[in-house]
Amino acid sequence: MIRFERVVKRYPSGREALADLSLEVATGEMVFLTGRSGAGKSTALKLLGLIERPTRGQIVVAGQNLSAIRRRGVPAYRRQIGMVFQDHKLLHDRPVWDNVALPLVIAGTPRREIDRRVRAALDQVGLLGRELGLPVELSTGEQQRVGIARAVVAKPPLLIADEPTGNLDPDLALEVMRLFRRFNEVGVTVVVASHDLHLIEKLGARCIALADGRLAGAADG
User: Fewer CB within 10 Å, N- or C-terminus of the chain?
Assistant: First the structure.
């Protein structure tokens, strides 16, 4: 599903976020990227989402070489990926329904199908019935679940999440991680960047540890 081949990411400042990184994630696998702050976890996910481009090396996702995807092809590629962020990135002046529906609206999905999928996604994250509320009316954990519903509403084969539990208490964090596990159990490939090793141990998924932009080691949880 995912293959990094000797990937380097160097910023204009000269800082090298990734250095000769090679790794693979199988289709249908759930994997955690771990490591200290600055290890390169977020950078790897940004490259997967084509938010940034590598300086050198190749990234292949579902048979597509990301280097071959030009700017006009990025939106179509991103429709194959659900992305979850630590800060939710919700539209705070729009109700929950609008936030979750956004990827489908952009893709031109018919309204009846959008309504069905939004309700199904909200049901999966335990928020069915809250679609007319504003994000500000929700708790931090509920806002994160809205972000997850938006990420999965288009049924992408790949879900990536950058420190999705960083702002949550331990119980809510475990609840969110179990949501990712449930999506993985129905065939979604899931890659989560997290520094919370204690939480990761409870999920029993493979960990890929990064240090200074390099592969520090990999182990089964």
Answer: C
Structure tokens at 71: 């700017």
Residue at token pair 């879900």: 159
DSSP H or E stretch at residue 196: none
Closest CA to 155 of 98, 80, 88: 80
Cα distance between residue 83 and residue 156, in whole Å: 10
Virtual torsion, Cα 181, 187, 190, 196, nearest 10 deg: 20
Distance between CA 84 and CA 82 in Å, rounded?
A: 7
Closest CA to 27 of 9, 56, 1: 1
Report H helices in the chain: 41-48, 74-78, 96-106, 111-124, 140-152, 170-185, 197-203
| pLDDT over 70, % of the chain | 98
Query: Three-state DSSP class for 119?
Result: helix
Dist CA 88 CA 147 (whole Å): 6
206-211 β-sheet, strand order: 81-85, 158-162, 189-193, 30-34, 206-211, 214-219
**Where in the chain are the domains?**
90-155
217 pLDDT band (50/70/90 cuts)? low
Asked whether the whole model's pTM tops 0.70, one would answer yes
- How do 158-162 and 16-25 pair as beta strands? unpaired
Residue 220 above 80 pLDDT? no
